[in-house]
Specification:
The protein folds into two domains: about 120 residues, no CATH class; about 220 residues, no CATH class. Helix 1 packs across helix 14, helix 7 crosses helix 8 and helix 8 packs antiparallel against helix 12. It contains 17 helices and no strands. With about 350 residues, it is mainly α. The chain is about 70% helix and about 0% strand.
Length: about 350
């Protein structure tokens, strides 16, 4: 474990990634409501950017991009040839395939590669928010509330004029606007502004955001059922409520070091966060494909069938982490290691 790490942030990131994996394995709407992972992860990213920008803005941008992209390049080196090999009759031009190198928009994929490429919007959005961070931080320091609310107002405008959100540019803009407010709230946390807010005010705002978003989703059902994630503005407000509550209070995490299995798991997920995120959906998809060949339907109960399929997916994900996780070490300028676990120093 690296010194001076914020173990509360590490724990939030681990919980967020685990929730993403569980939701893709078991797409139950309630999982999205329990913990809005994307909003939390973007808030953590915004907070961590502030300190780096204050030291050296140019170096901060280079370091963040360097740590983000190599894992994507490794995926592209594997997936793009496989997509071409399996038949990609309408594959895009080679120029568009460069989005696998610099993902300023979602990298293209065939149907064969969709399970992998379908999660890459997060990296695209993260990259844009990293690049916009110097501007966002400068605006925030001049106008706190305006900078938090402006992306949300932009998202409202896209919702009012849905034609503007069509196409590649509109999709990228929608995602950036949806999570920019959480990113800026992360900056507010690092600047100490959230800590200076009265607890009652933060509790009231957080509760109002969560309750308001749920009410909106309930009164505006999608295909006759409540679906918060299908209403970008409501989901963003919901995530803002959680971010306010999670970042206003940072509990002491001394206990984590005493619970070694949990502590090790949190460290492992943080050491291999990008690899786990990029490959978890591929692992889940392969496990689903293997369901019939492995005759998992012979297992007597449906619950045990799902558990067996999920176990296979996690074994495949572990194999991906062991095989490709070292790329994150190289990106972070650490000594490459096959094991995702950090060895604890021996006490002499």
């Amino acid at each position: 474990m690296q010194p001076n790490r914020d173990r509360y942030f590490d724990t939030l990131r681990a919980v967020a990634i685990v929730r993403v994996v569980l939701f893709h394995a078991f797409p139950i709407a309630a999982l999205e409501l329990v913990f809005p992972s994307m909003g939390v992860m973007f808030a953590l990213g915004g907070s961590l950017m502030v300190k780096s920008l204050d030291r050296n803005a140019g170096a901060a941008l280079r370091n963040r991009v360097r740590r983000l992209l190599p894992a994507l390049w490794a995926m592209g080196l594997i997936l793009v040839p496989l997509m071409l090999h399996h038949g990609w009759p309408d594959h895009p031009s080679w120029a568009k395939l460069l989005l696998w190198v610099v993902p300023i928009a979602d990298p293209p994929s065939s149907e064969f590669g969709f399970s992998a490429a379908g999660v890459l919007w997060y990296l695209v959005t993260y990259l844009w928010l990293v690049l916009l961070s110097p501007l966002l931080l400068a605006f925030y320091r001049r106008a706190h509330l305006v900078t938090v609310l402006l992306p949300l107002l932009g998202l409202v405008a896209l919702s009012v004029f849905p034609g503007a959100s069509g196409g590649t540019v509109g999709w990228v803009a929608q995602n950036v606007l949806a999570y920019a407010s959480c990113w800026v709230l992360g900056m507010a946390h690092r600047e100490g502004d959230l800590a200076r807010m009265r607890p009652a005010v933060v509790l009231g705002l957080g509760a109002a955001c969560v309750a308001g978003a749920l009410t909106w989703a309930y009164t505006h059902p999608v295909e006759n059922h409540m679906d918060l994630t299908s209403i970008p503005v409501a989901y963003t407000i919901y995530a803002i409520g959680f971010v306010l509550l999670l970042l206003r209070w940072a509990p002491r995490m001394d206990w984590l070091a005493r619970v070694r299995p949990v502590n090790g798991f949190v460290s492992m997920v943080n050491n291999r966060a990008v690899t786990v995120y990029l490959w978890h959906n591929v692992a889940i998809t392969i496990a689903v494909v293997l369901f019939d060949p492995l005759q998992l339907w012979r297992i007597p109960t449906q619950g045990l069938q799902y558990l067996a399929d999920f176990t296979i997916a996690m074994v495949l994900l572990a194999a991906a982490v062991l095989t490709l996780g070292w790329v994150e070490d190289v990106a972070a300028r650490r000594r490459p290691r096959v094991s995702p676990f950090v060895k604890r120093p021996r006490l002499v």
